[in-house]
Each structure stands twice: as structure tokens, then as C-alpha cells.
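Sequence and structure are no longer studied apart. As an example, we show below a sequence and the C-alpha cells encoding its fold:
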Amino acid sequence: MSETPPILIVDDQEKLLKLVILLMTRIGFPDVDGVTSGPEALERLRERKYALVISDLMMEPMDGLTLLREIRGDDALMNTPFILTEASFDFEDINLAHQAGADAFILKPFDMSVLKSKLKQVINRKPRRREAPLAAESALNVDFPMLGKF
């Protein structure tokens, strides 16, 4: 039996956090931890290696974008795949998150097929390199399939 990688879910709304953990378990990820704040997520990430972080964008006191920047700024954590979730994204959110190093965006409520495809895409991507200062260039090649739903 192959071991599935651990995933960390970050959402300041306890009910949504439990729901996402349940969804992840149902689609084949039995090793899922959940925390309700960015600082708690950073603490967990420094204790255990996660294959993926799925974080809500709008949280207090640390939002998902700040959490993402903290992770990308830490040499030990910078390659941790990161998906941002929110009920709606505007262009500025997507732009800022992409510049900060988000790997994908998923709209809430989750569409199971989109969730599965994003997980596969993000978990299988190549590691980042520090020496790539022009992240904006790659922004032009990003796939945002959920934007077609508007």
C-alpha cells in the first residue's frame, strides 16, 4: 500500500475546515491536518513536512497571501505546493497571489473534479528555484480553468 502524502488545510472557519478535511479524506488523502490560523500553519509546517497546503485567502489575523509569502520566504518550506481558496477571486487577488508563488486557486464551494485535477497538477509540479527573479513572466502561462465559469 503506497503512503499518501500529508496535507495541511488552513481555514479560520471551523466548519469549513472540517468539511475540506472530510472532502480530502473522501478523495483518497487520509492524512490531513487542519489548523485555523496562519501562525498555527507555519508552526505545523516547521514540525512536519507536508505535500500540500490548501489555505483560505481571507483569514484573520494572518491572511492566506501573507501565509504564502512566509512559506515562500523560508528556504525549508519554499517548495511546499500551495493552493488558495476563496468564494470569489478578483483579478488583483489572483495577480498578487501568483506573484507571491501560489500554485493554484480553487473557488468555494469546491467542484470535486476541479479539486482532483488541481491536486494532481500541484502535487506533481517541479520544485522552485530561488534564482528565478522574473516570476511575472510565467504569470502569462498560468491556467485558470475556473475563470471560464463566470
Observations:
- The beta strands are 7-10, 32-35, 52-56, 82-86, 104-107.
- Residues 132-150 have pLDDT under 50 and may be disordered.
